[in-house]
Each structure stands twice: as C-alpha cells, then as structure tokens.
Write a structure and sequence with these properties.
Helices cover about 80% and strands about 0% of the residues. The chain contains 15 helices and two strands. The protein has a two-stranded antiparallel sheet. It is elongated. The relative contact order is 0.11.
C-alpha cells in the first residue's frame, strides 16, 4: 500500500486532477459535512466539527421526533410505521457519517490507494487507445451514477418538502403536515414554531442526500474504478504476444536445414519479453486483489447497515402506500420507495461487475498468443488462470455477498415482512 500511495502522489503531481478518480465524490461528502477539509490550517478545519454536528444533529433530531411520535401515538399502526421508516432512513445516514468521521484517515487512504492503483496502469493507457477508452468508460460511469442519483434525490427532496405546503389541511386535523415528522398539536397557525420545525426538517432532507446517498455513491464509484482496472488488465492480457509471432512460425523449419540457430535465439528473446509483460500484469492483478481486501474492510459495515435499513424501509413504505388514508402520505411514500431499493441495488450491481470482471481474467489470459512460447510463460499463465477462477466477492458485514442475487433476496425479504405486517393489521 505504501508503494501505491507513493505512485499516486507522483502521478497526481505530474498529471494533475484528471487522475484523482474520486475527487468528485470527495467534494460531495465534504459539502455534506462528512469529509474533513483538505487543508489543516485556517478557519475551515476549526469550523468543520460544528458543520458536522449541525448535519448529524438534524438527522438525530428527526430520529428523536420519530420516537416521541411513536410513543404518543402508540396503537396507530399507520403513524408508527411512518415514523419507523423515517427513523431508519435517518439512522442509516447517522451511522455512515459517524463511521467516516471516526475513520477519516482510513477513508483518505482508500482514495490515495485507488489513485495509486490507477497510476500503476496509467502508462499503458496513454500508449494504447483501447486501454484509454476502458479507463474513460469507467470515469464516465462513475460520474453519471454520482451526478444522476444525487440530482434525482435533490429534485425528490424538494418535492418532499413542497408537498406539505400544497396539500389541503382538514379543519379538524390534530397537527399540520411537515416534510418528515408531523408533531402532535403543532399546527400551521402557530407560525413561529411551525416555521422552525419546517426549516429543521428541510435541512435534514437536504443534507441527507449528500451525507447518506453521497457515501453510497463514494463506494459505488470506487467499485466502478476497480472494475475499470480489471477490464484494462484483461485487455492487456489478451494482447500479450511475442514480437513477430506470425513470422516466427515459419522461420524455424527454414533455418533448421542450414543449421542456423538464430531463430531459436530470437524465439527465446521474444518469449522473455512476453514473460516480462506477463509478470507486470500479475503484479497489477495482485495489487487489485489487495485493494479489494482493503475496500471490503472499510465498506463492509456500511453496506450491512444499508442493507438492513433498506429492507425495513421498503417493507414499511409498501405498507404505508397500501393502508395510509392520507393522500399526501401516499404521494410521499410512493416518491420515497425507489430510494432504499436504489441504495441496495447500487452496491449489488457494482459488486457483481467486479466479480464478472475478475472471472474474465482467466479467459483473457487464455486468449493471448501463448502458442509456441516458452514453458515458463505457459506455466505462469496457468497460475494466473487458476487464481482468476476464484470469484472476487465483496461482502456486507461478512454476511451478505454483494451481488445481484443478494439484491433479489433482499427485495423478497422486504415483501415477506410487508405481508406479515398486512396480516397483523387484518387481525
């Protein structure tokens, strides 16, 4: 890892920003109050703890209000389940923020090691159009996923905040609607307290997008770039060949008649060149495997928390859409339902892509021009192929493998819990 960090610093010093592949995600987390400022001097590092406390405090305030509302309205299953989905969503954001705040150095190392991983294959990308296209494809995928999901959530968050203002309020209502938690006894007639509560909840909605969803996009972008590095490695392996290999297939038979051993010497030299390139590919493959182990150790508790909270959120939101008599509540729940499913799917989709790209290493090694090369080249290729047949599988808390099958099983679990809630209500 030390070698990767040194390589990253050298690469960024020579080429600048474009090779800092997670810079966009770091900016999002810094804006959301999760990531510490880059400089350690000045007023920003001093004010960062207050900024972090304001965002985290808003989310904790919503969780507290959800608990109070559940206690006051215990027995009203619609109100309690709505408070539960709000509390689980905000609790998920708090866990992510605290985890990043406590392990900031580890997260920073995660970024620098990924830059070092990219730096290892940078010179190959600059000389080869196919490799450069694979790297740019990974950058575009990460950028589109980050910008698209955050833009969608910000538009949805604004709609979430506007719906209470546009919905008609019954004259005999016990409380007025708020973006997240309606406080018993608080009506819009009390403008001072209602405005204060509305602004606090809107603040929580706005910053949850960058703190919680931004963390998901951070890990998803890291996984996309690891997949990109595996794809680059696969192209390099498939392009391995001896120099002049087509010509050398005929040369030995012609020269043997004249007793000339130069073609055999040339063949040995070309195989040595191919073996050297193969050794470089093996080293880069090992670096990717080490980075994946490090990525899993950091991401594993966050992904497990996300899966558990999302399963509960999907289950309870389905219940709200089915049995909530209020029109505004149904609209808000219908708008919110894709979010927990999206958060689970992003992890599973990116993790599955890593697994498929890792398995493709074996096929790429077999696709190179290995016919007629030396024994040490073929032996090294067999070792690479055998190692690549072990799936590169990330896990969530060492419990759930992060792949598409897990996503389907989590969705099925959410629907099972929803069915259980519906049966409990009918009884």
């Amino acid at each position: 890892m030390v070698v990767l960090e040194a390589s990253a610093r050298q690469t960024l010093g020579e080429s600048g920003e474009p090779w800092d592949v997670l810079r966009r995600n770091v900016k999002v987390l810094r804006f959301g109050g999760v990531w510490r400022p880059a400089s350690r001097s000045g007023w920003r590092p001093c004010l960062f703890p207050l900024y972090f406390a304001s965002v985290c405090g808003s989310l904790l305030n919503i969780i507290t209000l959800d608990m109070v509302r559940s206690w006051l309205l215990w027995g009203d299953m619609t109100a309690v389940t709505f408070a539960l989905v709000s509390a689980m969503t905000n609790l998920n954001g708090v866990v992510k923020m605290v985890h990043c705040f406590r392990h900031h150095d580890t997260y920073s190392r995660l970024v620098s090691d990924l830059n070092g991983l990219v730096a290892l294959q940078r010179r190959y990308c600059e000389r080869n159009g196919a490799l450069k296209a694979a790297f740019q494809r990974a950058c575009r995928r990460a950028a589109r996923l980050t910008v698209g999901c955050l833009a969608y959530m910000n538009v949805l968050g604004q709609m979430w905040c506007v719906v209470p203002l546009l919905s008609a309020e019954p004259p005999d209502a016990r409380e007025s609607a708020l973006p997240l938690v309606s406080l018993p006894g608080l009506r819009s007639d009390n403008r001072a307290w209602y405005s204060f509560a509305y602004l606090v909840e809107s603040h929580a909605v706005f910053y949850w997008n960058f703190a919680s969803l931004g963390m998901d996009m951070f890990f998803a972008s890291a996984m996309i770039h690891v997949t990109g590095q595996l794809n680059i490695l696969n192209i390099r392996l498939a392009q391995l060949r001896r120099e002049g290999s087509t010509e050398d297939q005929l040369q030995p038979s012609r020269s043997t008649l004249n007793g000339n051993n130069r073609p055999q010497e040339r063949l040995a030299g070309d195989s040595a060149t191919m073996y050297g390139e193969l050794c470089e590919c093996v080293k880069h493959h090992q670096a990717i495997l080490r980075y994946l182990e490090f990525l899993e150790s950091v991401m594993s508790p966050v992904a497990l928390t996300q899966f558990l909270c999302s399963v509960v959120a999907v289950c309870v939101t389905l219940y709200q859409i089915t049995f909530n008599p209020e029109g505004s509540g149904v609209i808000k729940c219908a708008m919110f339902l894709p979010i927990p499913a999206l958060q689970m799917f992003v992890y599973c989709w990116c993790g599955h892509d890593i697994m498929e790209a890792g398995l493709s290493v074996s096929l790429a090694a077999y696709s190179c021009a290995w016919v007629g090369v030396g024994q040490r080249v073929t032996s090294a290729l067999r070792v690479v192929m055998c190692r690549a047949q072990r799936p590169l599988q990330l896990t969530a808390g060492k419990v759930y493998p992060v792949n598409r099958d897990t996503f389907l099983s989590l969705i099925n679990a959410s629907y099972t819990f929803y069915t259980l809630l519906r049966q409990m209500r009918n009884r």
